[in-house]
Amino acid sequence: MKVLAINGSHRKGSTLELLKITLGEIDSSIEKEIISLSDFEIGYCKLCGACKKNGGTCVLKDGFQEIAAKMTEADVIVVGSPVYFGSITGKLKSLFDRSRALRVSWSLKNKFCGALAVGATIHGGQEHTIQAIHGWALIHGMLVFGDTSPTAHFGCAAVVSQKDGKFEFNKGGIETAKSLGRHVNEIAGMLK
Ligand SMILES: Cc1cc2nc3c(=O)[nH]c(=O)nc-3n(C[C@H](O)[C@H](O)[C@H](O)COP(=O)(O)O)c2cc1C
Prior knowledge:
Mean pLDDT: 98
Organism: Desulfurobacterium indicum
Protein name: NADPH-dependent FMN reductase
Low-confidence stretches: none
CATH class: Alpha Beta
Number of domains: 1
GO molecular function: oxidoreductase activity
Largest sheet: 7 strands, mixed
CATH superfamily: Flavodoxin domain
Radius of gyration: 16 Å
CATH architecture: 3-Layer(aba) Sandwich
Keywords: Flavoprotein, FMN
Bound molecules: flavin mononucleotide
Pfam family, one: FMN_red
Distance between the termini: 10 Å
């Protein structure tokens, strides 16, 4: 089993830290990788239609191909995003739009998808951000999971502040980040 975590932030900041907490809960026997979109160029899908005609290969040449290969290889994809105006970042949306090519071949179908969102404000749009990620996953035919018991809601929803250059997360944010990771262990157990 392979888990891919995607940091949808434009930088390596609080979202990456939380994703590391989530992956830290996942059993060491499970293969895990985190990628940050800040390391990749991702252009916009312009609806050229090539992927529809060629069976699912995006013809734009940038960082998307590498990410697409990683997503295709993974069994579980955990997508994290900072809340930007109540939703996901523009770069993550670009990745989602480009992934239309993968939907032509249904390459992500029946993979598991969990979501993580972090914002600077309580009720700042974390759940809406998570639902944007879930919407993408559902449209690919993926199986969406949230954080497991005892928290068991939509995934990791965190509030962050910064003190002395360090990120500080609310208690619920840390708990749901961990719980999301534990849910991956439960899925792995079910699949055995
Ligand atoms: C353009 C922009 C819009 C933002 N909008 C929101 C928002 O709607 N709600 C919120 O709680 N935080 C908002 N924030 C704060 C970020 O979500 C927060 O700082 C987050 O921790 C950044 O994640 P990162 O450290 O991984 O980059 C916004 C930040 C930026 C730059």
